[in-house]
Every structure is written in C-alpha cells, then in structure tokens.
Write a structure and sequence with these properties.
3 domains, globular, Arc Repressor Mutant, subunit A, Aspartate Aminotransferase, domain 2, Aspartate Aminotransferase, domain 1, eight-stranded mixed sheet, 482 residues
C-alpha cells in the first residue's frame, strides 16, 4: 500500500491503528484493492508498515466487522465481493467537521439506507396498512376527556405512559409468554431506537458483539455508529451458532438475535440452541438482545406458537425489543424494550436525553387499543390475511417462473426466501426487477461474510393482484436468466 508506511509511523499508538484502518478502507473504496484481493498475512503486513502486528490485526478486524473484508479459515483474508456494489449505495466520504463518533454514524449510510418511499411488492417488512382500523383509532382518541388531554400536553415520563406500559406487560404475558413487571417496559420510537439505547448504555467503543450473518443491516449500522464491532456469526438450521461465535470472539459482550423468525432466512431457533445462548450469556457475563420483530405472526394455533426467548428460565440477561411497526403500522413510531429492573432508570434517562418521551396522545390511545382487545382482533385478521397472501405468492411465482423460483411455505413471518447456490449472483435479478417496478431484495445485501445467496419476497402488505403482477415480472426475468 504506497505511502502507508510513512503515514502509519507517526502519532501515538492509539491513533496508528486508526490510520492503518483508514488507509486500508480507502484503498478498498477507491478500487486500489479490488474485490477478491487477498490481504497480506498480518505479520508481513505489520513489518511492511513498520507497526506492531496488533495494530494491523485491529484494523483488519474492524474492516471485517464492517463488511469490507472476509476471513476464510485456512485461506486468509480477502476484500469482500459485496464491496463492488457499494457505490450503488452511495458510498461517499463523510463531510468534514464531524467528530469521530459523527463520522461513524455518517458512514453507516454506506451500509444501510432505511426506505422512505411507498412500499410496493415485494419489499420486505411492510405490513398491511389499508386494513388498519383508523376510524376506531380516531374514536378512541376522541374519547379522552379535557383533563386527560391537558395532562398529556405536559412533559411526561420518559419511560412511557403508565397505562401503556401495563398494557404491554399484560400483552407480552398473554401473547409471548413473557413475565415482566410494567416497570421493566421502556417505551421507545420503534425497535431501531431500542437497539440504539441498548448500544449506548451497555457497550463501549471497540466492544465485540455477535450478530447473525446474514442478518438485519439496521442493527449492524446502529452498533457501528457507536464504534462497536459487529462480529458475524454463521447460521445453521437452529439459528446463530453460539458455540462457534464464542470460540472466535471470546471477549464478546453481547449477542443480537432474532430467534423466533430469523431475519432474513426465516429459521427458528430451537430450544437446545436457546439454552446454549442463555448459558453463554451467564458464563461470560454478557447480554442477549432478542429482536422479536415479527414474532406475533405465527400462523399455527396458540399451542403451536413458539414463545419468546425472554420467556425461558435463566433469561435474566436478555433484553427484549418489540415494535408495533409490524403489528400495526410503521407510521405509529412506537416500540418498547423490556429491561432488567436495575437498568430501567438508566434507559429512561437515555430516552429523555434523546427525545424526552413519545407523544402522549398516541401512547394513551395505544394503551386503550390493547386493553380493550382491539390489538388481538386486528392480529387475528392479519394472520388470516397474510396466510392467504403467502399461498398466492407461492403459486403465482411457481407459475410465472415455470418452477425456477419455488418457495417453501412457512408457518410464520411476513416474507419468504428463495435460496440460490452459494456465492452466486443475486444482484442482477434484483436490479432488473427494480427497473421493472418490483422491489426484490437479494440475500447478499444482508450478508457480511456469508456466501448465502437468494431473494426475499415480502407479501404481507400487498393485495393478491399486486402479488400476482409482481410475480409475473420476476418470473419472466428469472426465465431469461436461466
């Protein structure tokens, strides 16, 4: 790497590793180290730069956590293939003048861009909105007395409306098997803010956190924005392989998982793996974050539904993150975190520092919506509707693609995965589908080191006509790419 030695050999040791990291990353982003390039062994690399080996190891490990490089056991470390597609995500240098923390936050835009346009098939994560009982919601809002409205116009408890916290605690016990006190519930603006609060309060810059690979990029973006190193752990049929992750990253302070319906693969974490994860947390004094993003959408009978990880004995070190963005609609901007009692005040203060509290009127209406049974009725309707739409998707795509894109039915979730051969190209079909007006996410977009490839088909928020029309587009494109 030309010029690296001279630049790396100045400044205090704490800054040397940052300089090596920045130079390597710049070389990757500018194409001087193209995708597939093998990095030199750490000892040779350190000697050529005139720095300690640990300096190079730190820089490479951070690049690995951010998805720039991939380590292959017994083979070395290589520039990730996904980096070649990074310019399409708007990979640009952060503006000057930002703090180091500000730079970390700004740089997450290269790895995760939350959608802000109207959803259309087959975008994932979009619930059915047209069926939401807006008239009922408005009627509940109008039933508030003048005194109640005046009270909600004041500054409120940053941990959340007391009635809403009680309603959530009761709902969690009835729906997800979680026994918690209302005082443990901290209301926040969706699951993304919940993850942000957890990272700010429980992690320090440089900490290792085990994350699912492939997994949700919004979680990684939040962690990386705090200077935390998101360490990819492979999945098998039981979910995150905690033994493998613990062996590779023995100092990890946390694991973030989606155990009920793994995002994006749809795998459910079995009991033995759940118990192993809880044992790891106890043994290592670590935390487990359970992101139950669509756990309410399990389509079997109540006796067949998988309870939350947080409901198991020995789950004292689990923080449960829930959201109403999927069960109701994302515009509501309400979610919650269930935390151990000793952490409630710290989480409430962190919420107060960020944005004081959630809107009082919305919290009060949601509390009544839950307590009066409207949430239960709405979810029953959505489960039936989503099951039907899933069946339509499976049949329509099979017909349109002449069997080239078969989908396996699932008893949970809001999307299905068609998995292709490992390491294959899944970007081309997605790009062509987008040009034709269909949002089709490639599995590689959610991977860090994983070679798994395929496409995600969201079906929950789209009419049967929209699903069939999108299936015809994707099916036709798939036939041309055979």
């Amino acid at each position: 790497m030309p010029g690296a030695r001279a630049n790396a050999a100045v400044g205090p040791p704490r800054l040397l590793r940052q300089q090596v990291y920045e130079q390597l990353r710049s070389a990757i982003e500018q194409g001087r180290l193209p995708a597939g390039t093998r990095l030199p062994p750490s000892r040779e690399h350190a000697a050529s730069l005139g720095v300690a080996r640990n300096t190079v190891l730190w820089a490479v490990q951070r690049l690995q956590a951010e998805g720039y490089v991939q380590a292959r056991v017994g083979d070395g470390t290589f520039v990730a293939q996904a980096v070649a597609a990074a310019p399409a995500l708007g990979l640009v240098a952060p503006p000057r003048g930002l703090s180091r923390r500000g730079q970390l936050i700004a740089e997450t835009a290269a790895r995760w861009r939350p959608p802000h346009v109207a959803a259309r098939a087959f975008r994932i994560g979009a619930p059915e909105v047209d069926s939401f009982p807006f008239a009922l919601w408005d009627r509940l809002a109008r039933q508030a007395s003048a005194a109640q409205r005046r009270a909600r116009a004041q500054y409120l408890d940053p941990a959340g409306d007391a009635d809403l916290r009680r309603a959530i605690a009761m709902w969690l016990w009835a729906s997800r098997g979680i026994r918690c006190d209302a005082a443990q519930v901290v209301v926040c603006s969706g699951s993304q803010q919940g993850i942000d609060l957890i990272a700010r309060l429980l992690l320090d810059a440089g900490d290792d956190v085990l994350v699912e690979d492939p997994g949700y990029p919004g979680i990684r973006a939040s962690l990386l924005g705090h200077g935390v190193l998101a360490r990819p752990v492979a999945l098998d049929a039981q979910g995150l392989q905690i033994d493998e992750g613990a062996a590779q990253w023995p100092a990890a302070r946390m694991a973030v998982v989606t155990p009920t319906h793994q995002f994006p693969t749809g795998v459910g974490m079995g009991l033995a793996r759940r118990q192993a994860l809880l044992q790891w947390a106890r043994t290592h004094d670590a935390w487990v974050v359970e992101d139950d993003y669509d756990g309410e959408f399990q389509y079997g009978g109540a006796a067949q539904r998988v309870p939350a990880l947080c409901s198991l004995p020995g789950s004292e070190r689990v923080l449960y993150v829930g959201t109403f963005s999927k069960t109701l609609h994302p515009g509501l901007r309400l979610g919650f975190v269930v935390v151990p009692p000793a952490l409630v005040d710290a989480f409430a203060m962190a919420r107060a520092i960020t944005d004081r509290h959630a809107p009082g009127d919305a919290q009060a209406v949601l509390a009544r919506f839950i307590a009066e049974g409207h949430l239960l009725r709405h979810l029953r309707q959505m489960r039936e509707l989503y099951q039907q739409r899933q069946r339509v998707l499976i049949d329509a795509l099979a017909d349109a693609s002449d069997g080239a894109l078969p989908l396996v039915p699932s008893d949970r979730g809001m999307h299905l995965l068609h998995e292709a051969a490992q390491g294959s190209d899944d970007e081309t079909l997605s790009r062509r589908a987008l040009t034709a007006g269909v949002m089709l996410a490639p599995l590689s977009r959610f991977a860090m080191q994983s070679p798994r490839r395929g496409w995600l088909f969201g079906y929950a928020g789209y009419t049967e006509a929209e699903v069939r029309a999108a299936a015809r587009v994707v099916g036709g494109l798939a036939r041309t790419l055979r």
